Every structure is written in structure tokens, then in C-alpha cells.
Sequence to fold (393 residues):
Amino acid sequence: MASPRHPMPASPSMKMEDERRRESDDEDMKPLMTEMESKTPREIPMGNAPDLGFVGRTISNNPEFFAQAAKFAFCFFGLQASYLTWGYMQELIMTTSFEPTERVPTGKFPSAAFCVFSNRFLAVIVAMIAVKIRHGSIFSNNSAPLWAFTPCALSNTMSSWSQYASLKYVSFPVQTVFKSSKIIPVMMMGKLLKGTSYPIGQYIEALLITVGVAIFSIASKTPKEDNTTNLVGLILLLMYVFFDSFTAQWQDKIYQQYGKKNVDPYQMMLGVNTSAICITTAGLIITGDLPIVWEFLAANPVVLKYNIITAITSASGQLCIFYTIKEFGPIVFTIIMTTRQLISICISSVVFAHPISLKAFCGAALVFSVIFYQIRRKYNSKSQRDGGGGGQG
Fold:
């Protein structure tokens, strides 16, 4: 019986020949593999894949621009919904004559500071919950210390108080004109606090928006018998414009100093309102408003409901404010808030059938023309940058 044949051990020369053969096979496969790996999804046939159409192709070719556009739309409509409601409730609280009390015989709500306090109280609660959910703790993960938020917390408190208090002294058109004139003071405050330089064209655009909103606001309101402006009211409105301009620029400065990645809108909201609640509480105690407000709310419980609605819309509005300033800066935020004055009167005209005069229409056309021009200019500038970068690559 023949013994089984064992394979002969391979010699070193045979091993080297096998390795060369395998390497040759690998080299033959590489062009095919490289070609397949380098193909993009567009180069590989997709069979009967549906055509995305013009809109789909435009979005796919400009994903960053349309992502920013979606963020801007969220900021715009969030701010409008929150602060249109907040402004209506604010005016309702401060101008309505309620049931008189022993300490408040006029029946007018006695404390603008309490309105600010109620807004900040709910905002602190919302911010704490949001920061806890997002970061796992309330204060330990904050890169910016609490004292960094104190200046804008003080200015934010003072601007809100001045706005509430001014409604007792000035007419609605005058207050609207002052609100719509914030863009230029915001730019000046940016120059003062951060050394920001704005091109002359941006100052002209800000001036045109201010003029347009002022024309629309005044021309859209029917004159009232009591349309006088008190000196105290003018001082309060000047305080409002100054403090509000400071607030937006200081918040932007915090984002720049500590980094947008290290301070999110919820931490900003928490830091500002924590300081603000301390300031407003101290103010209520010092002025002795607490027992007066308590007595007034007991006689007029509907005012408490109005304050709660105001606090909710103020909290949602603050979330939108901090997010808008972080993503787009204080100038864009101020433009959005300025157009809110115009939109509020448009809604009033539609709901209550108030006619819009030719002067008001011209003011509205001026505002929207400047805003659309800004959007077009920024889009063209971005397209040119992207095109230039692609040519160099």
C-alpha cells in the first residue's frame, strides 16, 4: 500500500514568487476599487430616482444658506409671536382702569417693577429647567461667571421698567417712534463697548428703517384728544432706548468673550435673569410696592392672569432673543424687533378694519424695501465668497 504523499516544504524562492503574484493581483484590482470608492452618489446611476426639482436642487446646492434662512425664520416668527402678545398685555395692564383700592384710588396698576419681577421670576424657572436638561447641572457648567451677566441684567431690568412706566405719560405714537429708533443707538453702543466698525451704508439703511417705521406708525394711528407728551415720559423713553441698546450689545460681548460654543442661549437666559430677579426683588422691597400690589391683585384677580400671560410670552421671547443675538448679532435682532412695531399695526388694521393711509403705506414700503435689499446684498456677498473660494480650491 502506497504511503500518503506529503507536500514538499516550500523553498524561500517559491515563497517570494507567491508574494509577488499576490501583489500583482492586488495592483490589478486597485484601479477598479479606487474608481468605485471615488464615485459620488450623483455619479453612480440611481435608476428611477425622482427629480428633486428646482427648489430641491437649489437647497442641495446651498445647504448652509438655507439652514441659516430656516434659523432666521424661526427667530423672526418666534420673536413676533412672543412680543406681539407681550406688548398687547403690557399695554392692557398699564393703561386699563381696574377696580380702585384703598391705596390705589385711580384703579391703575400701581407697580411697573412688579411686572418686570413677574417676567423675570418665570424666566429663571424656565432657564433652570432648560440648563439642567441640556447640561446636567444648573450652574457648574457655565463658562461665564454670574457677575459677567450683571451689567446687562441691570440694563434689561431698567429698560423693561422704563417701557412699562412710560405708558402712563406718553401717547402710543410717541412710544412707537422711540422704539423704532433703536437701530442707530445699538450701532453706536456696539462702537463704544466693542469697537465695532459699521460701514456707512449700514448707518444709512438703519436711518431709512427708522424713518419708515416712524412714518408708518404715526400715520396709522388716529389722533386722540389727550396726545400730549409729558417730560417725564420722554425721559423714561430715552432711558428705555439707552438701556435696551446696551443690553443687546453686552450680551453679544459675552458671546464673543467666552465663546458661542461655551455659552448657549439657555445659560445666557439663566445668567441674566438670576441677576435680574435679585435686582427687582430688592427694588420691590425698597420701594414698598409689595403690599400695595398684593392688595390690588386681591381686588382685581384678572390682573394676575394678565401678568402670568405676560410672563409666559416674555420667557419665550427671551429664548428667541438670546438665540437670535448668538446666531445673527444685535443689529439683526434690533431690525426684527423694529419691524414688530409695523406688523403690530398691520394686524390691528386687519382685525379692527382700520384704514391704512397713503403715508403709512409709503412708510411700510420703505421699511420692507430696505430689509429685502439687505437680504439680497448679504446673499450676493455670500455667493461671491463661495464662488471665489471654489475657484481657488
Summary: The chain is about 75% helix and 0% strand. The first helix runs from residue 12 to 38. Residues 1-5, 26-47, 388-393 have pLDDT under 50 and may be disordered.
